[in-house]
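Appendix B. Extra example for self-study. Work through it before the problem class; the solution is given directly after the inputs so you can check yourself.
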Amino acid sequence: MSSDISPYQSRPPWAFWRSAVVERQAEAVAHLHKPKFQMDAGLPIMTAGSCFAQHLHRKLDGMGWNVIQTEDIADRIPRRIARRYGYGLYSARYGNLYTPRQLVELMREVGAPTPIIWEKDGRFYDALRPGVEPQGLGSADDVVQARAAHLKCVEIALSQAQCLIFTLGLTEAWVDRATGRTLPTAPGTIAGTITDNPVDFVNFGFAEILGDMITVRDMLMARNPDIKMLLTVSPVPLTATATEAHVAVASTTSKSILRAVCAELVARFDNVDYFPSYEIITTPVLGGPFFADNLRDPSEVGVAKVMDTFVASYADGVVDVIPAPVPVHEAEWDVQCEEIMLEAFRT
Amino acid sequence: MTRVAIIGNSHLAAFADAAEAIEARYPGVALSFFGLDNQLFFKSDLRKGKALRLADPPSENTRQVIDPKGAHVLDFAAFDLVLLTSHGFYLRHLFEALGSFNLLGLRALNDTGPLVSQACLRDAMAGHINAYTNRLRRFFPAAENMVVVQMPYPSTKAVEVSDALAGLQAQPDRQALFEMFNSGVHEHMFAKSLAYLPVPETAMADPFFSKPDLSRAAEMDPDAEPELTDYMHMNASYAALVFDELHRTILAG
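Solution. Structure tokens for the complete assembly:
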């Protein structure tokens, strides 16, 4: 006589919330991330994305992994200052790429720079990465020169990459009306004004983001058919929304779309994987949620949990040990994130 | 009698070698020398009432060694002036930056180096200087009669053994960079209320470089092959020029 009653009865501990999350049984925790493909310290990794991706870049670089660095000058100037100017945050100095559309447009711009220049108090800013020169540059020509030099470095990073780690951050963005380029931040936040630099609001939907990520994959594979893509979703909620929704609702909508795109890509493509940093920070799966006192930034403990899980996953193939969080020096948390500047506009 | 204590690391040797000449030239001056290891300087914190100490008891010996764990107190009040020679401004990183960066708004050094903004470089310089002045205040929290003597610039011949320095010498607008650096140093020293003696103009051959005859290498055997450190350290002639500048700008005033 068969004892099969329910399709769930033979499911393992990681399939049940109580054993996997409430009791956090070791076998269930070990299943939190099972990589589709292995990465090792020698694999040339390109990093990009929303500001949460800086943690991954820094951790892997600090561990001696082959994280591509095409614009790092921290061997010659203090690292803290280099980071303030966007050096060593990612594989090239593109600043935060909050939306996949920014990455698509950046890759298309390689070889044919099309700078957008904002001005503030007589200083000039690259609107496509305004945060990398906090004081701006001395002339518009300086911006043009700097962007051309930067894009050469992006080209080098793309040509070297065998794996792209990309963190999807936002669905909301501002598009420069004159050029159609997607901006990392609205004019007026760092430089420029909406009068001088008119923009249109866009809230990318599932289909657009999926299409952008497929375009990114296609462009990467055209360079390197064996390339891998590891995706994460930033657990950092929106600082502000330009929609009519409550910021919490808008944030959940945004993150849900990004997360769903990742699931779709992972299901479709063997060379695309997803790492659950979003789940580690925002759910109780490893004891969270882990947010700092501002209820927005991930806490140090949470980031350490993410990093430890990541390392354990790729060092051993599965998460068989979740190490205790390692205290990290305050300076390590100096993540550069221009989106937080929107807070200045709160009345 | 003007009692002058000179504290320093390996750069102290030039002043010690020049002691007789300096005391002969300025008869009212009596020099005492205190060696201070770099690591001790950088890791020790003498705030909160901790005294500056010597390894051996104070004596007539004018050459002693500072040791924060020593049993014997060194009282700066026993001196009219304290010169700190060349502990900080360890410029290797800065020279490497200046010798390899292309700077926006200035003429290009080459077509391979990173293109860096002047604001970034200025902040980097300020970071180096600020770190050093903070260390100074940690090690000498109450040194009101102290004068910080700028570290000597390397000899022009150092470019023969250092790619970074060769790059620096090739910077087309190094005079502008030199002025940027020096204005930053003055600004930070003033902000921390530290008296400061820059490298005398009489010792300079070029922005960021000393005259070659003032280096330790200039006094080596002609058959010897000087190393970079021999071009970075100066000789008694250099120290005498520094003391002349000190006398002209501070002691005589």
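Self-check: Chain B has nine helices and twelve strands. If your reasoning did not lead you there, revisit section 3.
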